[in-house]
Design goal:
Elements lengths: L3 H28 L3 E14 L5 E12 L4 E9 L4 E13 L2 E13 L16 E7 L11 E3 L2 E3 L8 H5 L4 E3 L2 E7 L1
């Protein structure tokens, strides 16, 4: 059970991450007018129970530029187990309201008392894939969805259906919002 203090702290972290993503997006849009329009942005929280990771916060920002290159970042924080992952995005593939992003994990932070430390020890430099689903806005819209980050040692091609299958199981967001623009 989460305490009110932990919930407020978690909301503050989510708000700060979303503000940094929005700030980065607006800075990129002004500095680089070569964006094609294909992008995914946003963040949210869900509770992961299967592996015992608990509360999980995900933020995503990925943009396809006119020259075909993709840039962006992904962050996944799991405060209940004391682990956060950061990755640089190099692939973006949008199908309808669903976006697949992949790239390389560039930073892992673990609290000293994390019982999951060995699980995440050697993941810097590995590849990741993540899927997000934008289910619309407003009271009548279903919550957006996000997959757990899929990780492997060989690169992902996020446009490849076999790679997409590794990011197919999605969780409903408890709070948050993603914007997928094809």
């Amino acid at each position: 059970m989460f305490t009110r203090r932990a919930s407020v702290a978690t909301l503050a972290i989510l708000a700060a991450l979303m503000l940094s993503v929005i700030s980065e997006i607006s800075g990129i849009a002004r500095a680089d007018q070569t964006i094609t329009g294909t992008r995914v942005t946003g963040g949210g929280q869900f509770t992961e129970l299967f592996y015992g990771f608990g509360l999980t916060t995900v933020t995503v920002h990925a943009v396809r530029h006119k020259d075909g290159t993709v840039t962006g970042q992904v962050e996944q924080q799991m405060p209940d187990i004391g682990v956060s992952l950061h990755g640089e995005v190099n692939c973006l593939h949008v199908v309808g309201n669903r976006a697949y992003v992949s790239g390389v994990i560039t930073k892992i932070q673990k609290s000293p008392d994390s019982g999951y430390g060995s699980l995440f020890s050697n993941l810097e430099g590995t590849s990741f894939i993540l899927a997000v689903e934008d289910n619309g806005e407003g009271r009548n819209a279903y919550p957006d969805q996000v997959s757990q980050i899929g990780i492997r040692f060989s690169p992902f091609d996020c446009a490849d259906p076999s790679a997409q299958a590794e990011a197919s199981s999605s969780m409903w967001l408890d709070r948050g919002n993603f914007q997928v623009v094809p």
